[in-house]
Amino acid sequence: MLESSFGYKTLDLYKRIDSKIEAHYKGKKKQAPCAKGCSACCSQFFEISEVEYVIILKHLKEWDKEKLDIVIETAEIYRQVLEKYHNEFYREYFSEIAEEEFSEKHYYKDPERYRIHIPCVFLSEEGACNIYEYRPLVCRTTGVGYKLNLEFGNVCREIRSIFWARRWQADLREFQNEILSVNWLESKEHDDSNEYTTVEPRQYPMYYYVNESFTKGKSPFSDSRLNSYFNMSKEDLIEILIDDYLK
Ligand code: SF4
């Protein structure tokens, strides 16, 4: 059943979060500064989960080749920028050798992350989101809502304090576990106690996924993972990825 797949559950979560945010701001005098034309958070370094990228891919299938080519070229340029200007970070976490020894603990704490300001590969010249309807969870929630009990620091150059922003932001704490679970997958393998185990595949920046799947022509996903996303095989994904690019 497609509707029971991980991908559809994620889309359903998008819908419920959007409704909550919309209801929260309806009729309110104080609105979040996040509106069309503001892309303050779109150049920060962040990752999305595999299932969120597969959702975006399904949408890219509708794009014409010219528009898609621009995204693919831009993703390759961004990869080169990361390699050239943040070389140590790139080698440590994004080169093929590094992938095998990837340490999440270091990666998320690496101060270099906060020095990387590469615009999102889906940001238009006008500062609008080219995949608005299919944008990932972080883009739906950043700025407009809060998900944790206590947070400090800034959100972006428009929202200086995440702590004080919660006076007017939507309370999204009820979705916290579901948001985290968008990246957890039930492995098909049994562990020692004969239970299914949960695996957490590594997340990547969007331009990295685009570069892997289109420029390098690699599918970053295994068949069993694709199955849990949309009950989809690698062949179905290749069709989604537009045959020309992955042949
Ligand atoms: S997907 Fe859209 S909202 Fe998210 S960072 Fe990219 S341009 Fe911005």
Cα(first) to Cα(last) distance is 29 Å
Binned, the helix content reads 40-55%
Q: Uncertain spans, ≥5 residues at pLDDT below 50?
A: 242-247
Radius of gyration: 19 Å
Q: Provide the spatial order of strands within the biggest beta sheet.
A: 1-2
Write down the overall geometry. Answer: globular
Count helical runs. Answer: 13
Structure class? mainly alpha
How would you sum up the major sheet? 2 strands, parallel
Bound molecules: iron/sulfur cluster
Number of strands: 4
The average pLDDT value, as a whole number, equals 84
Characterise the protein shown here.
46% of the residues lie in helices and 6% in strands. It has 247 residues and is mainly α. The chain has a domain of 161 residues. Helix 3 packs across helix 4 and helix 3 crosses helix 10. It is globular, with a radius of gyration of 19 Å. The two termini are 29 Å apart. 25% of the residues are buried. Bound molecules: iron/sulfur cluster. Iron/sulfur cluster binds next to loops.
Quick overview:
The protein is mostly helical and 247 residues long. It contains 13 helices and four strands.
Notable features of this structure?
globular, two-stranded antiparallel sheet, mainly alpha, binds iron/sulfur cluster, 247 residues
Write the layout of secondary structure elements.
Blueprint: H1 6-25, H2 50-60, H3 65-85, H4 87-93, H5 96-100, H6 104-109, H7 137-141, E1 145-146, H8 162-165, E2 170-171, H9 176-181, E3 185-190, E4 196-199, H10 206-215, H11 223-230, H12 234-240, H13 243-246
Parallel strand pairs: 1-2
Antiparallel strand pairs: 3-4
Helix pairs in contact: 1-2, 3-4, 3-10
